[in-house]
Specification:
The complex is a heterodimer of chains A (346) and B (172).
Chain A lengths: L1 H47 L1 H23 L3 H13 L4 H15 L3 H11 L2 H5 L2 H4 L2 H15 L3 H28 L8 H16 L6 H36 L6 H10 L15 H4 L12 H9 L15 H26 L1
Helix pairs in contact in A: 1-2, 1-3, 1-4, 1-8, 1-10, 2-10, 2-11, 3-4, 3-11, 4-11, 5-8, 5-9, 5-15, 9-10, 9-15, 11-12, 11-15
Chain B lengths: L1 H16 L7 E5 L6 E7 L10 E7 L10 E4 L30 H13 L9 H8 L3 H16 L2 H14 L4
Antiparallel strand pairs in B: 1-2, 2-3, 3-4
Helix pairs in contact in B: 3-4
Classes of the chains: A mainly alpha (346), B alpha+beta (172).
């Protein structure tokens, strides 16, 4: 195991280094488009509400940072070590594996994305280690590499072998990304660029590699992300508990969402107003902070009527956009998850 | 229409299921019309209405539960917030403070609470309200108790009560 891992590590590190510089170029382009698109969206939303605008502004800063950070997301350590290996040789193989496994729990909330994303394209990811399935996006794609490298010594061969799959994946991911963009901006959109970058990354990985400057950059910037990453698993359920529901109703029928729901709490089975059964959309609909749930139909009727929450008799927020924007943050992951699951199905 | 029917049916089932849960309230649906209900509520203890059983009539609108049900006392009651002739009830949750989350059962509970805590400042029964507002609690209680006996007590019990009263203390 040790020797194996060392070999893998050293080989991957070299390739990774090469990849990343290439990736950097592509991703810069990609990043730019993404940022533009996102800003546009934010702007359009911010027209609706100042509040939203503020959020968007802060996010704008984030988005600049995140794509880079995400590239190595939680795997900061991994990258650093890789760099070290590339420079100094592969002693750190075991460590790398370790960090890999470390990253798993932290990324687990986004696992569903990964499941959808990587699971569809590459079968060896799963076989290489269970980590891909439980890991975050980035860790997933990286372990993917490692797994491949472990199987094949020759990177070029691997690249060829992967080319088809990755192209497909990339397309899909880009699609996802586009979809995500369409579906709206969010305060917390780490996974968003992740996906896009993943696409880019897998693509670049296959094409051609050179040096490791990107890796350095990534390690530098990824600190902020890493903090995020480390504390995400704990916060995500909370977030979803409080606010992710309105957004999650867009991606019903998805594993990731159901995970959130089970971890959060179970909504009533029927609407207290009309006594009709709540479908998934309804039960993931949280119109008022007081927690009073009702079906969308009744909600609409109440809005047309006096517009007050039956639970607390406070007026509902009239601007659904505002509510959405304030809520989307926690649920971004799940939207992504949905799109990934679509891939998995297709 | 459909929603209110479904909702009322659910409430009906709920009432059947929890009949024993609240012995002070007996909520009965009209046999032929689910929009017509009657309720029998017991006068709360330590009030002049104690020992009385009051009948309420519910007329549920088709917009229910977005619109509150119309409730009135069928039994005569001397209460500042109940119209003495029509039995109309002045209660905020039956007007502007209505919430669709309320049920007929909870309306009954609210009415019982109103009986225990009259609001003389928004009276429908001016005589009663004036008594309370002028501080004549005893006068109000006497009147209310009298009407409770006259109107809200089953005849048999009333007779027994009268015997009891005449035997032990001064009649009203």
């Amino acid at each position: 195991m040790d020797s194996d891992s060392i070999n893998n590590a050293s080989s991957t590190s070299v390739h990774n280094g090469k990849d990343f510089s290439r990736k950097k170029r592509r991703s810069a382009k990609l990043k730019q488009c993404k940022l533009d698109a996102r800003r546009e969206q934010w702007l359009s939303q911010s027209v609706v509400k100042n509040k939203v605008c503020c959020k968007a502004g802060t996010n704008g800063g984030d988005s600049k940072r995140t794509p880079r950070g995400e590239r190595d997301s939680s795997l900061e350590n991994l990258e650093m070590r890789r760099r070290g290996e590339a420079n100094g040789g592969g002693e750190n193989g075991s460590v790398q594996h370790e960090s890999d496994s470390e990253s798993l729990p932290s990324n687990s909330p986004t696992s569903s994305l990964l499941l959808g994303g990587t699971g569809s394209g590459t079968s060896f990811t799963n076989s290489s280690s269970g980590s891909t399935s439980s890991g975050g996006c980035c860790s997933g794609s990286i372990t993917e590499e490692e797994g491949d490298d472990g199987c094949l010594d020759d990177w070029e061969a691997v690249a060829d072998a992967l080319a088809a799959d990755d192209d497909k994946q990339e397309m899909e991911r880009n699609e996802n990304y586009r979809e995500n963009l369409c579906s709206g901006s969010t305060p917390e959109h780490e996974p968003n660029p992740q996906l896009g970058l993943n696409g880019a990354r897998s693509d670049l990985r296959n094409s051609k590699p050179e040096c490791q400057r990107t890796v350095q950059m990534a390690t530098g910037t990824s600190r902020a992300w890493r903090v995020d990453d480390a504390f995400r698993p704990q916060t995500l359920p909370n977030l979803s508990k409080q606010r992710s529901f309105p957004a999650t109703d867009r991606h019903f029928g998805q594993g990731g969402v159901s995970w959130v729901r089970s971890s959060a709490f179970s909504p009533p089975s029927s609407c207290p107003i009309c006594c009709e059964d709540l479908d998934f959309t309804d039960s993931s609909f949280l119109p008022c902070l007081c927690g009073f749930r009702l079906c969308l139909f009744c909600h609409k009727r109440i809005l047309e009527d006096d517009g007050r929450c039956p639970g607390c008799r406070k007026a509902y927020e009239h601007d659904p956009m505002e509510a959405e924007a304030s809520i989307q943050g926690g649920s971004m992951t799940f939207r992504l998850a949905r799109s990934c699951s679509m891939i998995a199905r297709s | 229409m459909q929603a209110s029917r479904a909702r009322l049916f659910k409430e009906y089932k709920e009432v059947q299921r929890e009949k024993a849960a609240d012995p002070d309230i007996q909520l009965v649906c009209d046999d032929s019309n689910i929009f017509k209900w009657t309720a029998l509520i017991k006068g709360p203890s330590e009030t002049p209405y104690e020992g009385g059983v009051f009948q309420l009539a519910f007329a549920v609108p088709e917009q229910y539960p977005l619109q509150p049900p119309q409730v009135r006392f069928l039994t005569k009651i001397f209460h500042p917030n109940v119209h003495f002739k029509t039995g109309e009830i002045c209660l905020d949750i039956l007007k502007n403070a209505w919430s669709p989350a309320w049920t007929l059962q909870s309306v009954c509970r609210a009415i019982i609470a109103l009986m225990a805590h009259p609001e003389p400042d928004s009276p429908l029964n001016c005589d009663s309200g004036n008594l309370l507002r002028s501080g004549d609690v005893r006068g109000y209680q006497s009147m209310a108790r009298m009407y409770t006996r006259l109107a809200a007590m089953p005849k048999k019990r009333l007779a027994a009560r009268i015997i009891l009263i005449t035997g032990q203390s001064n009649p009203v």
